[in-house]
Amino acid sequence: MCSIFDRTIYPDPESEKAIMGSVVYCIHHKEGCQWSDELRKLKAHLNTCKHDAVLCAAQCGAMIPRVLMQDHLRYTCPRRRANCEHCAKEFSGSALEEHQGNCGHEPVYCENKCGAKVQRRHTQQHLQQHCSKRLVPCRHCGQRYTQDTVGAHGASCARAPVPCPQRCAAAPARDELDAHLRDHCAAASLPCAYRDAGCRFKGTRQALDRHIEESCQAHLALVCGVATRQARQLESLRSALAKLALNQSGALVWRISDFAAKMAEAKCKEGVELVSPAFYTSQYGYKLQASLFLNGNGAGESTHMSVYIKILPGEYDALLRWPFAHTVSFTLFDQSSTPDRACNMVESFVPDPTWKNFQRPSKEPDALGFGFPRFVSHEMLKKRNFVKDDVLFLRVKVDPSKIVAV
Ligand SMILES: [Zn+2]
Ligand SMILES: [Zn+2]
Ligand SMILES: [Zn+2]
Ligand SMILES: [Zn+2]
Ligand SMILES: [Zn+2]
Ligand SMILES: [Zn+2]
Ligand SMILES: [Zn+2]
Fold this sequence. Notes:
GO terms for molecular function: tumor necrosis factor receptor binding; ubiquitin protein ligase binding; zinc ion binding. This is TNF receptor-associated factor 4. It is built from twelve helices and 22 strands. A hairpin with a 7-residue loop joins strand 3 (53-55) and strand 4. Among the domains are: 16-76, 2-Layer Sandwich (Herpes Virus-1), CATH 3.30.40; 104-157, Herpes Virus-1 (2-Layer Sandwich), CATH 3.30.40.10; 246-399, Apoptosis, Tumor Necrosis Factor Receptor Associated Protein 2, Chain A, CATH 2.60.210.10. The longest helix is centred in the middle third of the chain and has 30 residues, at 216-245. The protein has helices at 3-9, 16-20, 42-46, 66-76, 93-99, 123-130, 150-154, 177-184, 205-214, 216-245, 259-268, 378-383, and strands at 23-25, 36-38, 53-55, 63-65, 81-83, 90-92, 107-109, 117-119, 135-137, 144-146, 190-191, 202-203, 251-256, 274-275, 279-280, 287-293, 304-312, 327-332, 345-349, 370-377, 387-388, 391-399. Strands 13, 18, 19, 21 and 22 form a five-stranded antiparallel β-sheet that branches. Strands 14, 15, 16, 17 and 20 form a five-stranded antiparallel β-sheet that branches. Bound molecules: zinc ion (7 copies).
């Protein structure tokens, strides 16, 4: 019942009659009801006013204006009957609200974002069998890729088989192709193992086996040729090396080992001469050689050790000045363990230009050179540490200046 009747209309019973006869608008005038009549007819009007609220016809308990009842019953009443638009099953309103979001027939987007829409009940099957974003193993290498990229991976997969470029029947894995071509391909053209010796044969593995069997003689001849060429090269290398090893410093330190045995030999045989390695005074200089008579020679025979220097025919003699005019010094080292007390024996000379020893040597040089027959006496040899551990050191030094260096 409307509040107008309760509080405004009844407080004064005396004037009820007059009031009931007054003209009023329907209480739903603002909502759009055009009804207007005496107040006493209002109650009857409200029984049919389409804007007045009445209990839901489906007894959900809600008060609904008559004009909205159709909508309410169809769309919002929890007790309405309705069909799911996806599965077409009939539900009560509240059950349908629960059903929505769970209906197995509703198409939903794939959670892997492949872009596909599938019915909710089929999503598991889609993810496992059809989704383009599902992970599948590469059938060659076993690595997992999404289904839509595994094909592209195959084009570079190291384990995928590729056709042999030599067109043999094999299809080796991509990462084994090199080994296949090198070691296994039946169609590969291989060079003969004697290629470096000069054989030009090339052929398949089979043809090569046959060639090797048939070409023993030819191969042997090739290898022989190689050996000959190498021997020649070796020879020229050896002489180049000897040239490089030649002393060109102008100073020779001559080490005489087994001194006692050599001295004993010199004492019992006549004219035993020790000769040093040849050496050059400079890179393109004179070629010299020292000689040593342990038991002396000439004026020093049996009492002294004699030293001489010989000029040997050298490669650059034609370009050098003659006679030879460099100062030559001989030093016998005192090998005392206290270097301060060591006292070396030194002798030197400036060549006399009139001596024939200092002219350009012929191919057959003199047996004896120029030097000191009485270089050091046998007595002196014993006094100091000239011989130590049975070794004696003699330095021969050539100095381009003419000053005697002592
Ligand atoms: Zn009304
Ligand atoms: Zn209802
Ligand atoms: Zn449904
Ligand atoms: Zn998918
Ligand atoms: Zn792969
Ligand atoms: Zn092949
Ligand atoms: Zn061959």
